[in-house]
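Record passed on underneath.
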Amino acid sequence: MTYTGDVVKNGPADVRELPALTISKIEVGDFGNNAYLLRCTDTGDGLLIDAAAEPDRLLGLIGDHPISSIVTTHRHMDHWMALEEVAGATGAQIVAHPLDAPELPVRVTQEVEHGDRVTVGVITLEVIHLRGHTPGSIALHYPGHLFTGDSLFPGGVGNTDKDPARFERLYTDVVERLFDRLPDETWVYPGHGKDTTLGAERPHLAEWKARGW
């Protein structure tokens, strides 16, 4: 089956098999949150992005194979409601940006800044700090693949509560740190809803800036 990234509440995970990495996407909770399980093909090690809700479903997705890390993309509660239970069951280290870490329900064991690296098995993911949705929002980049939390969606950047300064900060970071650096074919895996690509969104950047959201 071809990966589309289209998942629904209570539905199965959509799975993308890359040569070195498997990406499984599932929708959990009442807010349409996406959670992503990444597994290193070489070692079997796993990394979960956003233990958002429904810990039993997330643990079922993880299965009997260990995960070494849980990355929380930002401080908003809908992205960490299952974090304490999944962390307790897996013993995984907790990864977040230091500006959002104090808001999480468990102690962050690996604080990451812009440009840092997170590993899963022999795979390395780049941390990209995208300021504006929250102070410590981060994205994770693996060549060709970008996990953006609530900072970038199909059709625009994340919510900045109609604050012009926050919007300008987020828009600038998204343009400079994502669109100016990464190719159009880069696949975007957001924190809610459907996936997209940078190429699909790039023609609309000026429109986003003009409307201010």
